[in-house]
Amino acid sequence: MELLPRSPGEFGSARYWDRFFRQRGQRPFEWYGAFPELCPVLHKYVRPRDKVLVVGCGNSELSEQMYDMGMCEDIINIDISDAVIRQMQERSGSKRPKMSYLLMDMLQMDFPDAHFQVVLDKGTLDAILTDEEEATIAKVDKMFAEISRVLQVGGRYLCVSLAQAHVLKKAVEYFSREGWVVRVHQVSGSGDKQQFVLPVFVYVMTKFRKISGSAPQILEICPEEQDKPMRVDSAERLVAAVKDRQHYALLCSQLSKTPCGEQVSLDLCDKESGQPRYTLHVVDSPSVKPSRDNHFAIFIVPQGRETEWLFGTEEGRRQLAASAGFRRLVTVALHREQHYEGMAGIQAELSGKVMELAPPGLPARQQVPFLSVGGDIGVRTVQHRDTSPLSGEYVVEDVKGDGTFYFRRLIFLRNRNVVQSEARLLAPAPLPGQRKRRKDKKKPSPAEPPAAIDKSYLCCEHHKAMVAGLCLLGGLDPLPGTLLAVLVVGLGGGSLPLFVHDYFSQARVAVVEIDPSMLEVATCWFGFSQGDRMQVHISDGLDYVAKLAAEVSALPPAAPAQYDAIMFDVDSKDLTVGMSCPPPAFVEKPFLQKVKTILKPEGVFVLNLVCRDARLKESVLSTLREVFPLLYTRRIEGEVNEILFCQPSPEGRRDPTELGARARALEGALRQPGRPWDSSFVLADMLQAVRIL
């Protein structure tokens, strides 16, 4: 049976609705949900003594149910369809003597001014405002004007709608311009209906006397899970907030029907501030064999560990889901700006929401496990927060790693899932007499991590590879007592130059850093210090190298170049480029030629390359090969980083046996008695995976 109109414009036609209701018969037609879903919102705004007008009533049971439940009895229902009005008069008749049905056009009503306390519209505005043509807008303006006329001051226009952007925007702009308070409720449980995937909303427009001049708009939204409204500052923001909830409903509907081929991510925001509180990733593993208990699980990522490969990358999360053995795993990352009341509190907060992301085929009443590492939510302590004109907002935070160690991290919040710098913290030394105290003395709080930096430990694998690259130096043995001139571009927390300075006792290290804030951070929070053999120059690395190259070029041909090793570990501030390290200007041919000019013939140029764009990466490698005849590469396992070792002369090429021997000799010299050494840092292993390009 054909019940749909030939064109959207027919929704405003009495002739269409007469035909519709004659064909449909006595079966109620419920636009956008029935009374049980709408009742929690309606009862807030409809009082028992109110006079209520229902416009475009159709043959919905909503008015009858409101009457029968005692919500309100003085209800007048109007519609332009004579067929449905007669049908409803027969159906309701003497059962509800205080409720009436009238044939009337809501664009031209017969009621006196200020006659009602409530006007209720269930889908009628959506049916009329099908487009933004001039004639349609004029009809809607007339509808709104009539509703405004028959409502008393303090009265409410309640409009049940799917909240298409143009419909919501028109209603909000019209009534807020008239000085009304506008509030939008999401109807609880409306997003899972078979008829409508999208959630249903109720606009609540409360009439106030219009004040001359410019009165502030009052616009609010009430998400379904909370009663307290959230204020927004513009119609555009209100429309955007509704759109976010619609997208979420569509996502949940999609996830409930089919496995997701690609990982889906979304933020759940704090009710009070509107700021992200949880970041969820939905990971499906179709290869996992289904059983009764492995359909669905939630994994809470401990605070501070969301940047690790296993939790912070698609590939890592896919491996985590497969090893956990669940067909769908939702990983949950916690935000540093938020406070959490332990695992039990998180589980109570998320249990209802994550079930909306359940996979198809989840058995009814299936208990969904919450998983984590070590059973807790980790420790994160923000030690310092500031804003740099160059790097933007950043934080220095201490986090508990996998085990007993704490780590200090520098995070640029413009790219909050990337650790800019990291250092391991030392356990505090016992105070004199501390061992004699009672054994049952209360232990230090886990929220108070140690503060001293372990300078012997390089947290970043790419830093270890860059140090190992010193084995490639030609013409001398890179032993700790050898005179070395090293230039490092990019300071960060200072771990790399500090390690070279401390373990190569005769190395003179020059560091170039464009951002003075980073020197302050490294000094105050990462144990960095300057001295006779360590100097920091606040300058753009491009300018500094260009200046040095010009000075070297002005010297006689026999004069030596300046540096044995040059290391680039500098991030790009432009996140739109597919290369986050270094900035593209640092790998352009004219600049690389200047780098070569200040590098000794037997020296090594070490570059940390982080490039996700395959074409761009190949272009960078091609340019490097044009400038440096000998090029080695070392991929960092589980990361995007690739360390490139570039040498000015092909004569410096070394076979694997010689390279391994030099690495073992250097490591043996660095492991001096009484000097701490990270046993996991094996130079020969670092160079074993090096290959020549």
| CATH class membership of the largest domain | Alpha Beta
Order of strands side by side in the largest beta sheet?
3-2-1-4-5-7-6-8-9
Q: So, the CATH homologous superfamily of the largest domain?
A: Vaccinia Virus protein VP39
Poorly predicted sequence stretches spanning 5 or more consecutive residues: 1-12, 190-194, 436-447
Radius of gyration: 34 Å
What is the CATH architecture assignment of the largest domain? 3-Layer(aba) Sandwich
- What composes the largest sheet? 9 strands, mixed
In CATH, the topology of the largest domain is named Rossmann fold
Number of domains: 3
Give an overview in words:
β1, α3 (62-68) and β2 (75-79) form a beta-alpha-beta unit. The protein has a nine-stranded mixed β-sheet with strand order 3-2-1-4-5-7-6-8-9, with helices on both faces. Strands 19, 20, 21, 22, 23, 24, 25, 26 and 27 form a nine-stranded mixed β-sheet that branches. The chain starts with 13 loop residues before the first helix and ends with a strand. The protein has 693 residues and is of the alpha/beta class. α15 (541-553) packs across α16. The radius of gyration is 34 Å and the shape is elongated. The protein has three domains: 8-207 and 215-250, Rossmann fold; 258-371, Rossmann fold; 458-692, Rossmann fold (3-Layer(aba) Sandwich). Helix content is 30%, strand content 24%. The longest helix is centred in the middle third of the chain and has 23 residues, at 235-257. InterPro entries: Lys/N-term_MeTrsfase_sf, Methyltranfer_dom, SAM-dependent_MTases_sf.
